[in-house]
Design a protein that fits this description.
With 268 residues, the chain is mainly alpha-helical. Helix content is 60%, strand content 7%. It has nine helices and five strands, in the order αβββββαααααααα. It has helices at 10-19, 82-117, 119-134, 145-153, 158-183, 187-210, 214-233, 242-253, 255-261, and strands spanning 28-30, 39-42, 45-49, 56-59, 67-69. A three-stranded antiparallel β-sheet has the order 2-3-4, with no helix packed on it. Helix 5 (158-183) packs across helix 6. The longest helix has 36 residues, at 82-117. The mean pLDDT is 85.
């Protein structure tokens, strides 16, 4: 599909496909001309406007209405739409990235704690395995792969392993806090994620100067993209007008202002 053929409300259409349309007045006994923005009744058939994707849904009037009239604007919560909804998808994509970090870090911390708690028995088993592989000659076999990793781990004391495990646990907790805050589009989570991710970028650059791998490069690109997006698109630290400009953008591109701007006149 060519870019110009894509619908401009594709995020709204996707959300409605997943969650259903956001309709109001479906339980109202009567519809008036003042409700034409969200509900219209033509020839005994009602047309309900989705407050998210602007689609008009045809339904029969309710047989057992629970309220006399359509809700007023003060009673209606307009769902996220437009750039505000797009931002929510991006933030939740970043939150999912943080979830993968939390998952991996949690597993790593559990392994470290278990390893530190049983390091003596594991070291004995490791030596037995290496002796079997080398036929009793310690210099005949060099540990590689996972065995090499275990061999290097035995050079650390249990206290060092516990300390590393607690550090990783703390970082996983930080990532989990970012994940939850971003999922619910909290402003503080955007700042926290920006600062935490920015602090990682110099270390990732240093690692890339030592050796380049697909994993390191992808992780670096993702983190840089997150930093740039949060700084510019979310207007952090007063950039591009700061939070006031961001709030004004949300009000102008969402809510009743956006609904009125996208409203077509009723058929004559």
């Amino acid at each position: 599909m060519r870019k110009r053929d894509r619908p401009t409300n594709r995020y709204e259409l996707l959300t409605c496909a997943l969650q259903g349309h956001a309709l109001v007045g479906t339980d109202a006994a009567h519809v008036s001309a003042e409700d034409a923005l969200v509900v219209r009744e033509i020839g005994g058939i009602r047309w309900y406007r989705c407050l998210r994707c602007d689609d008009w849904v045809m339904r029969e009037p309710p047989t057992a209405p629970t309220r006399p009239a359509v809700e007023s604007r003060d009673e209606i919560e307009v769902p996220a739409r437009g750039p505000v909804l797009r931002d929510r998808y991006v933030l939740r994509l970043i939150a999912f990235d943080r979830f993968t970090h939390v998952f991996v870090l949690t597993i790593l911390a559990v392994i470290l704690f278990a390893f530190a708690g049983h390091i003596g028995a594991l070291h004995k088993d490791y030596n037995d395995i290496m002796n079997d592989l080398s036929g009793g000659d310690p210099g005949a076999s060099q540990a590689k792969g996972i065995l090499g990793v275990f061999g290097r781990a035995f050079k650390y004391s249990p206290s060092h392993l516990y300390t590393l495990g607690f550090v990783i646990t703390a970082y996983a907790a930080l990532e989990a806090t970012e994940m939850v805050g971003l999922w619910f589009a909290k402003r503080w989570a955007e700042y926290l994620t920006f600062i935490a991710t920015t602090l990682l970028v110099p270390y990732e650059i240093y690692e890339l100067t030592k050796s380049i791998s697909a994993f390191k490069l992808i992780a670096f690109i993702i983190n840089v993209a997150v930093v740039v997006y949060l700084l510019l698109a979310k207007r952090l630290f007063g950039l591009r007008g700061g939070h006031a400009a961001e709030r004004a953008r949300r009000e102008s591109l969402g809510g009743w202002t956006a609904i009125e701007r996208a409203t077509l006149p009723p058929p004559t």
